[in-house]
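User: Can you recover a sequence for this backbone? Please restate the input before giving your answer.

Assistant: Of course. Working from this structure:
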């Protein structure tokens, strides 16, 4: 039987550059890597089901969009001591309404109303839109990349927006205009990878990252961002995600987009709104190191038990 250290399941062309970095990082950690892609998935499944191959850690960036990978995720759940972003935890984090309920009691979030799916309740009772302020964002509780998101000032747009995804809950979230720091909007996207923290300035219009330096963190008093990300990591149990935080004119750090997973890992050298290349290299390194640590710990526990 051939046993790999890590199986990485992926099906997005945008991950190609990250895969190259992960291969390098796994080599540095002496971690054997099995890639599961749509092209070889049937063979990988046949091998593990026949007991001819296996792996001890699993990193899934495929089953959220491609159901064919779900049996592989199920095998990993039963056999792997280490799973990066376990499917059951990732699935919970995909529900923005649930994340709002989990996070709003411990972190500052914008005023928000949760609406039931249109198909479940087409006609809504009167809504107290005054709590949202002069404008608000309508967003589906599932999905990402801005799909289905509308910023408006009129409640007349709510019914049509809810029908875009009629089986999905919707959120009405107060539209936040952050304070400006030396002319730059104080809107941040923070990447969390394997316990590491990578804050970036974030342009919510262009979606372009600019690395936030430690000096800028200290200069502008932005250290609370670290605690926010640690809290989200603790509540979600995820190893790799991003979040968006804005600093309000009142001085509050507001978590705007709670948990982005899977993270878009296209490199900035290939697309302007991609992840800065150096950060992408760090993320691959951090994931490989995390897997190596967890497998070493599992080996130690197994040895002690024997």
């Amino acid at each position: 039987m051939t046993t790999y250290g890590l199986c990485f399941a992926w099906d997005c062309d945008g991950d190609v550059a990250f895969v190259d970095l992960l291969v390098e990082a796994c080599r540095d950690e002496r971690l054997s890597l099995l890639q599961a892609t749509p092209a070889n998935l049937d063979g990988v499944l046949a091998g593990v089901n026949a007991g001819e191959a296996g792996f001890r850690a699993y990193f899934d960036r495929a089953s959220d969009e491609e159901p064919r990978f779900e049996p592989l995720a199920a095998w990993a759940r039963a056999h792997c001591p280490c799973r990066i972003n376990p499917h059951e935890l990732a699935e919970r984090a995909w529900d923005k309404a649930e994340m709002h309920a989990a996070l709003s009691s411990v972190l500052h979030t914008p005023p928000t109303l949760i609406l039931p799916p249109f198909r479940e309740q087409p006609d809504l009772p009167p809504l107290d839109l005054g709590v949202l302020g002069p404008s608000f964002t309508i967003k589906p509780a599932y999905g990402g990349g801005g799909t289905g998101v509308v910023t408006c000032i009129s409640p007349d747009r709510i019914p049509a927006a809810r029908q875009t995804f009629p089986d999905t809950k919707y959120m009405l979230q107060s539209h936040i205009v952050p304070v400006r720091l030396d002319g730059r909007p104080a809107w941040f996207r923070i990447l969390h990878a394997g316990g590491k923290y990578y804050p970036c300035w974030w342009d919510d219009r262009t979606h372009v990252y600019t690395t936030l330096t430690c000096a800028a963190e200290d200069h502008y008093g932005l250290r609370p961002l670290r605690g926010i990300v640690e809290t989200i990591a603790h509540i979600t149990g995820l190893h790799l995600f991003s979040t968006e935080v804005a600093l309000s004119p009142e001085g509050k750090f507001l978590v705007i987009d709670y948990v982005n997973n899977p993270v878009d890992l296209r490199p900035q050298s290939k697309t302007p709104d991609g992840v800065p290349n150096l950060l992408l290299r760090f993320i691959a390194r951090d994931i490989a190191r995390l897997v190596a640590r967890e497998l070493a710990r599992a080996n130690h526990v197994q040895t002690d038990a024997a």
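That completes the design. The chain has three domains: 2-85+281-305, 111-174, 178-261.
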